[in-house]
Fold each of these.
Amino acid sequence: MTETAARRRWLRLPLALAAASGAVAGSGVSSAAGSAAGSASGSTVSSASGSTVSSAWGSTVSSAAGPAASSEAGHAAPPVQAAPQPLAFTVIGDTPYSHLEERTLTQVLAAQEADVAFVLHLGDLKSGWESCSDDLLRRRHALLRASPRPVFFVPGDNEWVDCIRAPAGGFDPLDRLALLRRLFHEAPPPPRAGFDAFERQSQTPGSPPFPEHARWLQQGVAFLTVNLPGSRNATSNDTRLQQANAQRMIAVRQWLAQAPAWAQARQARALVVASHANPGFERDPADRPPIAPHDPDDAYAGWRAGLRELARVCPLPILLLHGDTHSFQIDQPLRDAAGRRIRQLTRVECFGTPRSAAWVRVSVPPTEPARFVITARQLAVESKY
């Protein structure tokens, strides 16, 4: 008989971003992450995306992304905010994909350090071949709800878009999305999560009914979540789904466009954007104009265009979090209209199956300019005979 015991221990991966310039140290960030994840050696991954960005919105702001920018004068001075405290949260996604991974995820959630404010789950809380039944989705919801740290869930594609497939039970995707909203996005977050100014898009005047689109402030860091699934952004030949997807993307663009003003009004010093899909940054060529936002062959070209505009008008360091392709990576892949790299925005993709015992820790020290410190961690598993 073999008894497997999970022992909590922090394992750091050998990746680094140059904190001063925001440039990736080395040339193989994502591949190095995948190959060395089981090693106990390595270093913290630190990012200063926008190395001289200031949170004083009314003053000149410079960053590695380009020339200095300034906000318009004439606005009333915002209320004085308390000095920020250190903030730490963790990121998981694309798990659990089985009963065994349910046990692993329970251990991962229990292993979070005491200073972790909350956990972001970036979607795909089931595999594509598991049933999308009420029972399974409710069980996965209960698993996340039982976490010692509050968990905020961002929809993926396996739990609604892909439910129409036969192995998943042939469910109506919009019906599954409605169930996810009732489970995860109906009640307000618990007070222990510490979300300030929390609101859902469905609760703002004149906005469409998308409660999974949320925003909040925590220790001076603004957070924004959107429903951007994989499976080519839920592309479908079904007229009803096409209409629903068009409405969803209108809501996504609106929510993203409001982020700079919303963050400015709350004196945010950094911005975190969380979604599920890998946006395919590599499709935009270097030193040439990017793919047109409405290219029918690129389901995420419009999202990348929205991120470019966000970086243009928002002077803050921006951290983009996503899952989808199960490959932990940290880089700065967004390019401007001329094909030049935008170093103000850092992308982090979280781990996923089969690396279900690993997660990403993000910390934001209370320093100016604000910076993100990224650390990859995982459970150490020992076998006893």
Note: The first strand starts at residue 3 and ends at 7.
Amino acid sequence: MSSSYNSRPGVAEVMVKGDKFEVVRKRGTVEDLIKGERVASFL
């Protein structure tokens, strides 16, 4: 479980079964972290 508390993108998640593996969640980006954020209009 990842968190953006320290402004770090989430890590990729990989599912493994025996000798098979697949990325099930891509690594997060900085853009993902700031998406939906805005600076207050009075600053």
Note: The chain has a mean pLDDT of 88.
Amino acid sequence: MLKIIKGEFKNENINAILEQLSLEQKNLYIERLIKLHSKEYLLYTTKFHGIYHSEKVMLFAYLIGLTMQKNGYPISDEDLEILLDAGAYHDIGRESDFEDEFHGLVSANFYEKKKVFSDNKLYDNKTNFKILQAITDYHSQNDTDCPKRIEINFYNYDIGDEEFERYTLLAKILKDADALDRKRFPDFDPAGLNIDYLRFKESRDLVELATEINQIYRIDNAIKPNPDLLTWEEGQCLHSIGYDFFKIPSILENGILCLSKIREKDLDIRPNFTGGNGKYFISVVPTRLYHSTEIQHDDACQNFINKGITFLCSSQKLYEPLDNKDKDKAMEQSLPYDKSEYEDERFVYLEIKPEDIASIIILKDIGDMKIKDAQILYNNFNVESIKEKIRSFFNNICFERNIPDLNILFEKYNKTLENYRNFSREKRIENTNKLAKLLNTILASINKVVVTVLNDYYANILNKKEPLIIDIVIYELRKNGYNYEYTAGDYEYIFDIKKVKKLTKHIKLN
């Protein structure tokens, strides 16, 4: 956070907002930040509600308070200090990362019991201290079902009636600041931010800032995992890239990479699937667990390996994911978890090197499929991820034309997601499966538009009215300068990597 405050990240929006703070205001935040780090032992120590969360809620509460003070709200400089302190220590009473309406009360009691502010003269004034306790208690309470809860909470702290307006204002600011840091979760996550719940315009104006600061935290404070914490076996494995034939040359050149390695090498590659692998692991299926399409299972083999372009890889360490119920622990330690609950899914750490890729395998029914019939897009609650995938496809064929139908479909997709985000957290959890079905229907129409564009492009290039997947794979290998040999068996096409050689020059194809 200190680097953000000092403007060391090249982010125009963040720096523009922070440049509005005076040197004195910045120094006050930095002073409280240093003090927070000296008392880190008081905090609940997890990735979700630990020191990083406290740093951000401090800043958001401070910025909301400063802006509202500037806009004429009755907020004093003492109130700003109270907001900083509440933002810093509001979760010290937590015992878990789960929803808990009472941890605010425990935190408020700890202020006194653990003498958290014994070195702060501001709280020699008992009213200031009681207000700090009261707004901390209130921040974890669900007030949507009981609007009078804010008033009930106030009278639990023996504060004079003349302070009610002040308390109410600070309590709501802290609520909003805490909510803004829900941008650390994806928008589609039930724990994500619902903007409609923010109480002040000044809070809503900081949503973009909260998003960008959390992006910086995700990258700058990423915890590198310790794979030795996981159970593993050694063996050959299979990895699918769906129908993303444009990835084949990059994989032959660089290997199969986790997201962290892709960023490290600055490669323009987009993941097809959002699974439980996180940034440091690659999803695979051990060859010993492989089964053909004749055996029907709802597993990784059935849903991915048998439905796309697959790489057979030589012996790797294959790690078992943590159980889905341990998702929080997995995310905190950057370890994979069993998000899809596929019994056959395992994970490889960091990368599968090019020399460890033995062959490319495409099942006959996939290779012989017309591109116009392929499902090349996969359901994702993150609209930008789908758009990035489409842009990647279109960039590879130099297609730049705007498609009105696609814009209309994405508007419909966004509207469906927006309606879902407006639900309460409980209703969002309840309706997740229903949402996925609705989005799948719209995505099928989006997919149809995209594969039609690809079909027209390759029909022209290959002089074939309805190109097949195998035609396009062969063409993309040749276009990128690879000489290849493959065998067409009864059940699959197999490209022997040892016989897929890179030529000295790319072949120019008409």
Note: The two ends are 53 Å apart (CA to CA).
Amino acid sequence: MGTSDIAIGYVSGAGKIRMAVAVGVYFETGVTKGKAYLQLARFTDTCSKQNDQWKCVAS
């Protein structure tokens, strides 16, 4: 099991939200081939609202 922190920001244009960016970090722990590991990972996801639907444009 791991833990995570996520922050989400929005970019608006003409009074409407058109872009959303989620950034975060998570820690993952586990065992592989009998050895314990701890991994830190970061991520950024960018989504765009097109035709009233959210689409991931970068991850």
Note: The first strand starts at residue 2 and ends at 13.
